[in-house]
Write a structure and sequence with these properties.
Blueprint lengths: L5 E10 L2 E11 L4 E5 L6 H8 L10 E3 L2 E2 L5 H6 L2 E4 L11 H11 L7 H7 L1 H5 L10 H14 L4 E5 L7 H8 L2 H6 L3 E6 L2 H7 L2 E6 L2 E7 L5 H9 L2
Parallel strand pairs: 3-8, 3-9, 6-7, 7-8
Antiparallel strand pairs: 1-2, 1-4, 4-5, 9-10
Helix pairs in contact: 3-6
Bound molecules: adenosine-5'-diphosphate (ADP) and magnesium ion.
Length: about 230
């Protein structure tokens, strides 16, 4: 077995006294697409925030490319090639599309992703490059948030609920771009409430419930019924 790109061992996470993650262990191979599903409050966003350096963790609870990063701050994690597309997009509202993308470029590493390449992936962002981020539709905002993450030239990109609040046709349109991103050599971690979408997009799926992984498997081996049962805790 090759060493995984991301290796998580016995990861806990706390908000004050409240424990949100309980001993999470998993491995994400390089060049794979992995999805996490689970109900509201299961701990999906907390897991992504922990990996991104936004939650305190033990150094050796998170290993990226062979190095312990659990105790590293977010800017350091970003420089190593981990980018988060956060829940709710979190664009800078007073800035234009292009300015938001440029900020992404300053956060990460040098590499092949540029404004031109992001505009090639999402042509509508080129059309709207001088528009303020708040004036975009929800789908365009999500594209801009993904583009901003790509500008950091990540090796691992984590997307938190891409489909939240978007019409199904827009969700399909955005998901249709993910294979191009994966083909560029970026490993993808996708958090999704839509089980069907998660199974379709990923090689491996993890179901979370109350801060724990309760079911996992290759998407070819695991049924939607089993995932749904784990999801709802029945
Ligand atoms: N900033 C916070 N302060 C306190 N508790 C939080 C905070 N964010 C999340 N939680 C709690 O942590 C648990 C996991 O939340 P979260 O990771 O956001 O779940 P998910 O993304 O799966 O919906 C929930 O019980 C939630 O209420
Ligand atoms: Mg969440």
């Amino acid at each position: 077995m090759p060493e995984p790109l991301l290796d998580i061992r016995a990861l806990d996470a706390f908000y004050g006294d409240f424990q949100a993650l309980f001993g999470i262990s998993l491995a994400v191979p390089a060049n794979s697409v992995v999805s996490f599903v689970g109900a509201n409050g299961a701990g999906k966003s907390t897991l992504l925030k922990s990996i991104a350096g936004l939650m305190p963790a033990k150094a050796d609870a998170i290993t990226f490319d062979g190095e312990a990063i659990g105790d590293k701050p977010a800017y350091d994690v970003a420089k190593r090639g981990i980018a988060l597309v956060p829940e709710g997009r979190r664009l800078f509202p007073s800035l234009s599309v292009e300015e938001n993308l440029m900020i992404g470029g300053q956060l990460g590493r040098a590499g092949p992703w540029s404004l031109a390449r992001v505009y090639e992936l999402f042509p509508v962002l080129f059309e709207r490059r001088n528009t303020s981020a708040t004036a975009l539709s929800g789908g365009q905002q999500q594209m801009c948030a993904i583009g901003r993450a790509l500008m950091a030239n990540p090796r691992l990109m984590m997307c938190d609920e891409i489909s939240l609040g978007l019409a199904p046709i827009i969700v399909r349109d955005i998901y249709a771009r993910l294979p191009q991103i994966a083909a560029a050599g970026i490993t993808l971690v996708i958090v999704e409430q839509d089980v069907a979408q998660a199974l379709k997009a990923a090689d491996h799926v993890y179901c979370m419930q109350e801060g724990r992984i309760v079911l996992q498997g290759r998407t070819g081996d695991i049924t939607r019924k089993a995932v749904s049962a784990a999801y709802f805790g029945v």
